[in-house]
Amino acid sequence: MTCIAAYLYRNGKRQEGDVYNNPPTDLQPGDFVWIGLLEPTAEEMTALQKTYNLHPLAVADSRVLRQLPKVDVFGDQLFVIAKTAHLENDRIYYGQTAIFVGEQHIITVRQGSARMHSDLRAHLEDSPQLLKHGPDYVLYAILDFIVNGYVPTVQTIEDSVLDMERHMLSSFLGRDEIARLFHLRRQLILFQRILGPMSEVTGRLATVELPVVNEKSHPFFKDVQDHVKRVETTVEGLREIMISVFEASNLFEQQRQGDITRKLAAWAAILAVPTAIAGIYGMNFDNMPELHLTYGYYYVLCVIVILCSILYWRFKKSGWL
Q1: What is the pLDDT of residue 230?
Q2: Is the four-CA dihedral 18, 23, 26, 30 of positive or negative sign?
Q3: Residue 297 belongs to what H/E stretch?
Q4: Pairing of β 77-88 and β 91-102
Q5: 75: how many CB neighbours lie within 10 A of its CB?
Q6: Are 142 and 82 in contact (CB under 8 A)?
Q7: What's the rounded Cα separation, in Å, for the pair 39 and 56?
Q8: How far apart are CA 321 and CA 169, in angstroms?
Q9: Domain 3-252 in CATH: superfamily?
Q10: Which DSSP helix (H) or strand (E) runs through 292?
Q11: Which of 144, 188, 287, 312 sits a CA distance of 20 to 30 A from 46?
């Protein structure tokens, strides 16, 4: 069933009745209909178009999932598209909520959105004084509900990045972790392409005189815009942290390789002493006076040990060993 809920609200209170199949014809000032649909068919949208005089272009856009957030004006009605987002297996999946707003109706069409509006509707119905503001307040509540859904997504990515940052400080990032870091960064870049238009939509609703939107509702939409901007700031900060984690990981790796290189060079220098001395006395010459010394062997060993010890002490003091 594509119709999730459809009710008439009078004085902020829900009225019983099937307004989806039997649209009300005796609406009074202040009354409005709120219909929630999930992936409706073309026939269902055509029926709503005729009943509520929806613009054909808006109806067509509501069924196309690959839309960016926007707000359009069609006569005395508004058409708003907002994008939902949820994180699953390190990937952000997007849904779409198209909203038709008139003086006495608000219709939401969800496509690919995992978050239902049931809790939101129940929360608003518990506050009839809020619902008395009309469809524009419901529009604000839906947009605020969608934007608040961005926060868990960003927080989950933030926790993952901070975990990688802590891991990077204690050890080194592996190939899989670096690949995951760049994957999350790409997800945030794509997410920013949604946040920008969402900020423009809420900004326009908060500042521009539009049909259906009462001037008293502008502060509410301004509040939603502030939420979007906070999410944008967090996402931008996360991208910078990701770059810093990657650069710091590279620096630590270079430092580790430098330490290994210095240690190898130090041991090579130490081993070069006995190698050089052994090479000299290993030459096949008969006229080498030291070869006939009674304690020549022990003298050479002492010299080797002393020189190697001096080199070891110097390298140790300089931090190479």
Answers
A1: 94
A2: positive
A3: helix 296-317
A4: antiparallel
A5: 9
A6: yes
A7: 17
A8: 22
A9: CorA soluble domain-like (3.30.460.20)
A10: none
A11: 144
Q: Are 165 and 195 in contact (CB under 8 A)?
A: no
Structure tokens at 67: 């839309």
Residue spans of the domains in the chain: they are 3-252, 253-317
Q: Distance between CA 243 and CA 296 in Å, rounded?
A: 62
Nearest to residue 102, comparing CAs of 144, 58, 47, 147? 58
Total-model pTM: 0.78
Which is nearest to 259 in space by CA: 308, 315, 312, 307? 315
User: Residue 265 pLDDT more than 60?
Assistant: yes
C-alpha span between 239 and 194 (Å, rounded)? 16
pLDDT at 255 over 60: yes
- Long-range Cβ contact pairs of 130-135 (< 8 A, separation 24 or more): 130/12, 131/9, 131/12, 131/13, 132/11, 132/12, 132/30, 133/214, 133/216, 133/217, 134/30, 134/32, 134/103, 134/214, 135/32, 135/34, 135/101, 135/102, 135/103, 135/104, 135/105, 135/106, 135/212
How many whole angstroms separate alpha carbon 249 and alpha carbon 161? 13
Residues 146 and 85: their CA atoms lie apart, in Å, by 8
- Asked if residue 321 lies in contact with residue 312, where contact means CB atoms within 8 angstroms, the answer is yes
Of 118, 123, 147, 153, the residue nearest 206 (C-alpha) = 147
CATH architecture of the domain covering 253-317: Up-down Bundle (1.20)
Of the candidates 153, 155, 161, the one whose C-alpha atom is nearest the C-alpha of residue 178 is 161
For residues 308-321, one letter each, b for 16 or more C-beta atoms within 10 angstroms of the residue's C-beta and e for the rest, the string is beebbeebeeeebe
DSSP character string of 86-136: EEETTEEEEEEEEEEEETTEEEEEEES----SHHHHHHHHT-HHHHTT-HH
> What is the C-alpha to C-alpha distance for residues 277 and 219, in angstroms, rounded to an integer?
87
Q: Is the pLDDT of residue 93 over 80?
A: yes
